[in-house]
Amino acid sequence: MRKSNREKLVAGPVFRQRYGAARSSRMIPHGACIASMADMTTPPPSGLDWRAHMITSSAGIRALLGRIRRIAVLGIKTEDSGAPAFYVAEYAQHAGYEIVPVPVYYPTVTEILGEKVYRSVAAIPGAVDLVNVFRRPADIPAHVDDILAKRPAAVWFQSGIRNDAAAERFAREGIDVVQDRCLMVELRSIGK
């Protein structure tokens, strides 16, 4: 009887060296490994795929901005800083969004943009639609559990800010994520 290529591989010296002679004598039913691999690589139904929560298209961003009303700004700065972490939030406020300041610095400041300051996202009373993040990528992991405790509909990492591990964690929890995009630029692009 003639040996198939698969049987030659299993009985071959490289296989025996890696997996031992005893294993090489055991044959795996044809198709068993293929079925197992197919089960592992078959994506879940589209409604369960966490990647659907990673928003990258202009249409997706437009839809997100159309359904949010309340934005917590993590890492917001004060007016005298002249930083994007202030004027982007100010622009969103003028565009009609409610801004909830969550500064990381300024421990004595109690109000920014005329709104009460909160020291964590989880401490904000009521629902939060979007957490706009102004933190360096390396600083984001320290805020992930706080953000998850609030369960916002979306998290937005500003221009120049990417943290794929944090973004994936949020997306796997069903939270929409935008990375490396400026909220002000996107609001302007939709006419707000």
Could you explain how this protein is built, in words?
- The protein is α/β, with parallel strands linked by helices.
- The chain has two domains: 38 residues, no CATH class; 142 residues, Rossmann fold, CATH 3.40.50.720.
- It contains nine helices and seven strands.
- The strands form two sheets. Strands 2-1-5-6-7 form a five-stranded parallel β-sheet, sandwiched between helices. A two-stranded antiparallel ribbon has the order 3-4.
- β6, α8 and β7 form a beta-alpha-beta unit.
- The longest helix has 11 residues.
- The protein is globular, with a radius of gyration of 25 Å.
- The N terminus is likely disordered.
A few lines on this structure:
The protein has 192 residues and is of the alpha/beta class. The protein has 9 helices and 7 strands; from the N terminus they run H-H-H-H-H-E-H-E-E-E-E-H-E-H-E-H.
List the helices and strands and how they pair.
Layout: H1 5-11, H2 13-19, H3 21-24, H4 32-41, H5 58-67, E1 70-74, H6 84-94, E2 98-102, E3 111-112, E4 115-116, E5 130-133, H7 141-150, E6 154-157, H8 164-172, E7 176-178, H9 183-189
Parallel strand pairs: 1-2, 1-5, 5-6, 6-7
Antiparallel strand pairs: 3-4
- How many separate helices? 9
Percent of residues in beta strands? 5-15%
CATH fold-level name of the largest domain: Rossmann fold
Gyration radius over CA: 25 Å
Largest beta sheet: strand ordering: 2-1-5-6-7
Keywords:
single chain, 192 residues, alpha/beta, Rossmann fold, 2 domains, five-stranded parallel β-sheet, two-stranded antiparallel sheet, 7 strands, 13% strand, disordered N terminus
